[in-house]
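To illustrate the input format used throughout this study, we show a single complete record. The first block contains the structure-token representation of the backbone; no residue identities are included at this stage. The design step must infer an amino acid for every position from geometry alone.
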């Protein structure tokens, strides 16, 4: 039995789960998420919990069991609490501003870099050196944060660039003068 797949998912108050064929809809205070799951996994609601079972012990069913449970748990957490990624901007002259909904970065290029938020994503700029990416879809939040980080990834010599909060940058020794 899958150790992750057999764990029940607790439903917070205000979260409803409905199934229509293979499509599962999760509604909560932050919004609504829909996803299609394999018919090899059965999703049943027992009181305030969701329980997932698989129909057989084939390799594919075993793999889908834990995956489906993890994706469904992320949907429940997203509509109830939401997800966020914190990014830090390190470097002299590197900064970010929020203009309306979009971010405007000064990253040492000859031009400012603008980033529009995808659907369902919001940005916060608590200081000129940090950005918070928020949303209800964990995959969309992570992808948006990764796209922002890819504008100027941290370099190993001085550590300048955009990095995740708490990310460790492995530093290299630079040239030494003679």
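Output of the design step:
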């Amino acid at each position: 039995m899958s150790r992750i797949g057999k764990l029940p998912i607790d439903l917070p108050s205000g979260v409803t789960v409905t199934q229509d064929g293979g499509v599962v809809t999760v509604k909560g205070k932050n919004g609504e998420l829909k996803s299609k799951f394999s018919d090899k996994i059965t999703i049943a609601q027992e009181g305030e919990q969701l329980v997932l079972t698989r129909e057989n012990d084939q390799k594919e069913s075993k793999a889908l069991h834990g995956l489906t449970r993890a994706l469904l748990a992320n949907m429940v957490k997203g509509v109830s609490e939401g997800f966020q990624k914190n990014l830090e901007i390190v470097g002299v002259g590197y900064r970010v501003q929020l203009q309306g909904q979009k971010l405007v970065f000064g990253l040492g290029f000859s031009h400012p870099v603008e980033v529009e938020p995808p659907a369902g994503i919001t940005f916060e700029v608590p200081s000129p050196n940090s950005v918070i990416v928020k949303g209800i879809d964990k995959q969309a939040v992570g992808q948006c944060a990764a796209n922002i980080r890819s504008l100027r990834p941290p370099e190993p010599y001085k550590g300048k660039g955009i990095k995740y909060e708490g990310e460790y940058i492995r530093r290299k020794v630079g040239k030494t003068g003679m």
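Structural context for interpreting the output: Helices lie at 59-80, 138-149. The chain has a mean pLDDT of 92.
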